[in-house]
User: What shape does this take?
Amino acid sequence: MIQFEYLSPSSVKQALGLLSPNWGDTEVLAGGTDLLGLMKDFVLTPKRVVNIKHVSGLEAIRSEGDGGARIGALVTLDRIVEAAHIRQNYPALAQTVADAASTQIRNMATIGGNLCQRPRCWYFRNGMGLLPKTPDGKSMVVEGDNRYHAIFGNEGPAYFVSPSTIVPLLIAYGARLRIAGADGERELALEKFFRIPGSDAEREHDLKPNELVTEILLPSAKGVRAANYEVRQKASFDWPLATAAVALRMNGSAVESARIVMGAVAPVPWVSQEAAQAIANKTINEQTASAAGAAAVSKARSLSHNNYKVKLAAVAVKRALLVAVGQTVPDLSTAQRGGGA
Amino acid sequence: MPAEDKYAYPPADERTYVGRRMGRVDGTAKSTGHAKYTYDYNAKGLLYGAFVRSPYAHARIKNINTSEAEKMSGVKAVEIVQKPGSEIYWAGDEVVAIAAVDEPTVRDAVRAVKVDYEQLPHLVIDSEEPPHNIPPDTSPLGLDDLEDMARNQVPTAQMVKEINERGITFKPEEAPLDRMPADIAKAVKSAKQKPAEKKPPAWYKPAAAETQGDADAAFQAPEVVISEGLYGLPVITHCCLETHGAVCEWTDSDHLLTHVSTQYISGIPGQMAEVVGIPAANIRQVQENIGGGFGSKFGPDRWGIYSAKLSKKAGGAPVKMMLSRAEELEVAGCRPSAYARVRVAAKKDGKLTAWDSFGWGTGGPGGGGSPPIPYLIRDRVPNYRIQWTAVVNNIGPARAWRAPNHPQACLITMAALDDLAHKLGMNPLEFFKKNIELTGPRANIYMDEFPVADELMGWSKRWHPRGDKTPGPIKRGLGMSMHTWGGRGHQSECDLTIQPDGSVTIKMGTQDLGTGTRTAILAVAADTLGLTPQQITLLYGDTRYPMSGGSGGSTTIGGVSSATRRASVDARDALFLKVAPVLGSTPEQLEVVKGQVRVKGQASKALSWKEACAKMGAVPINAHGKNLGGRDPLMNSGVGGVQMADVSVDTEAGIVKINKMVAVQDCGLVVSLETAESQCYGALIMGISYALFEEKVMDPTSGRMLNPNMEFYRLAGIGDIGELVVHMMVNKYDGRGVIGLGEPPVISPGAAISNAVANAIGVRVPMLPLTPARVLAALGEQKGENA
Ligand SMILES: Cc1cc2nc3c(=O)[nH]c(=O)nc-3n(C[C@H](O)[C@H](O)[C@H](O)COP(=O)(O)OP(=O)(O)OC[C@H]3O[C@@H](n4cnc5c(N)ncnc54)[C@H](O)[C@@H]3O)c2cc1C
Assistant: This one.
């Protein structure tokens, strides 16, 4: 075991003081569902691990007067599923979080850790690097098996996909993030938090190595129709192949404004203006939703093994839109019960 | 009465346990966590072993430096597994073994070893079609070649043929003749000896084409309907829930106690003796339970051997070497891949006339044997030409995988025939019936099973021609397949003792792979002695008990049931001998019924079991049962099974969902109905997994496995399996005796599911697993898209 120092500060300030300004020297430990696996596989080898679970003030879900919510970074996924305020005001979020991972993991995993979790890219997880290279300097992903890799934002050098199934919906809801650092606190839109790294020394987000995510701010979702659709091969406990989250404000039966965000398709959650435009001022039905799906992937660019993901992303967008307006979408889990062959 | 008849099983209505549903005797222990596995041996002073593994798929070891590791405190023993100069053929192969006081230390020590490699070119991809014009290798065979062939499950007949035709480069006495199948040993002894030829390394090893009749003429015959297709399945792993591993310790300087997680308890000492340098008699193997083997756990393997060697070096302390999940998937066994371009022809009435296939696949560094295509009908299809090229590559070593080569052959054949039935405009069930004669001796069994499966699936009511016309993206379809397997019982022996106080003990050196072996042994003994299973103590899982063969090839149930039956009958008859005078009768007139020994049919002339045993005096009765192998009428070979699948496909997302699977299975005389059904349920789930999810994904550049975890090496979960319906053909073929069941039901699911998907969506998805990528590509091609 590579020796490391383990510290458990009790305040944000203390925690910040323990974090190194260089990535890799120190790692923040929240629920540990992601970090510990990476450390056991020697993908990450920090010299110091800063456990933030005893940091006070990060574990509350607060309801705002206007119906909005603030979720502390240490709130576990399970508590989000259970929270009455979330169930009432953000039902799509409660559902999406309930669909993530497994019961055991949701009991441990924090929402802050969920935002900061590292990619599931099999080159990265097998210790070949976040931006793995062949001996002659080409991308191992491009040369190799990229069936689960990016179809957007894949001009290089990054080809992995953003893993969280929850983040796209938070972005669609217009979530903002509070971040604490040595110079005080800052706030930014969640979609701005994610970045495509240009080198192995960078991370997939805007956090500095000595900053902490402290809180997620959700604007009121009154009048918003939201949904998240995940294309997964297995019925449960499986990483999706493509996801789409939508949040719609309606004017009668027409869409007044839309936020459409795809997951598992790019190194960052992928906000699709094209899809949003395609349904602006339109009523959502099979045709308009399909058109939005097609628009969403109009600029997709597949790698050698992932052309199918372009179709799946379009399907995810289409179905998320239909679900958001209460229409039924094809559901394999019901096929078993009804219908003749 | 003739000597043999007294061992025959009584008719079904006179049995209490055999052929009936009886709870698994170890069910409680397993579900409450009391059952012990190799992983659970945590003796005092236990050391942890681990391997330094090659990061390269093909390399030569140049130099090994273990000095850093040896210096580390807590490191107790270091052993070089492969010396400098050795060639490595797959990533993850073992190079150095280390034992240390705890897991973190041993992992650190592994990382402290420095190995220099010379990297050599590797090949890990096998799905691309090899060139058709490579001449077959006719050079004489070396010992290594034979070992490769054996490891890759090349059929005996094929090996004999090659030995005869190519000759050998070694002296027969240099070969381990006693460990070879008799036919091969015979061929080796009579083979021509030739000098070795220097051969350049080749990725492809084509075998000579095999032909029957005149395939070309048959395809050109007027009025035949021809179907062509490409079919295949990739390399998958065994992914045993309990990973491979062993705990070994030296109980004194020349006695070794092993707990290898194994399918062959009796065989472990013999396989380890030479390498650890003590007589096999000094090695004791003990294993209570095994968490899955599926054909991959017959030998001690490097982990067994090196846990023993490290233990010796460390003064005898127990050394535990269990593979991690990643190691399990990378090195502990591959199921060979198989792909084939197939042409099949039939007359307009559906009678099959010809088969032509060009196939290829890999079993790793040795290439691999060819699957028996066309499956089931090979001996009888009038015209065929079968070509096969083994792909020699660095994906990892092949091991037998539940019904070796059969799921592959079954998929390729049944999918090709299903496509042909479609071209003929026939319902596949009718097509298979039309050609049932081609399946040979089991034809009547399939004909018996078809209506049962039809009824359970509602096939005739619900089947539609290819392409579900229901509007919307969800399409539903039905598919079917059939299979066979040998499964004659292996050599097995049993000691049964009845004590004067009535207690009964059975000792057998067999293993229960989770198949229900224990339950079956007790069912046979309890029925024969008129007792309940709870009244009998079964001691097993230890080389101190009478030998039993390896649990492979579905040979266990036949072997152990016959041995148990024979021991039980003999012990019972010995008891009758003592009791008859007391009851004023003769031994032949006695019977055991529900805990009583009585004169046949006379409830008044009876003694309780305990009273009867008390008449034995002070000497226990001991009977030794041993089955008669190939001439044992209590066991047999050759089963038939039919399976049907009902699937729905989301044609927009390419996702296949199993609605229902029906398995109708024969295995001669069913010994333990409930555990037999469980075998079929398990096989269906395993079959659904390889049909939909499993694939050993390799990186072409690094030559490493990309999904050595259960996150991307997917297995079916409870939500993925649909409704499973199993029907055992009970009391129908009892006269054939007991036949193995472990493997057969896993052969058909891939084919049945693939056929059901084709029926649903109107187009064949050529390769398993049926992932969204493959389903969408097939649909795209159908629509003329460039998918
Ligand atoms: C088997 C499995 C299945 C999964 N399935 C899903 C799924 O379906 N959908 C999904 O969205 N996720 C899934 N996950 C991921 C899971 O949700 C994350 O691992 C989890 O949310 C991480 O939270 P944690 O508290 O355990 O983080 P940790 O493991 O403790 O940390 C994760 C990362 O975030 C950093 N970090 C944590 N908290 C902070 C903070 N407050 N400020 C700055 N940095 C921080 C850590 O330094 C580390 O790099 C799955 C994980 C597993 C193991």
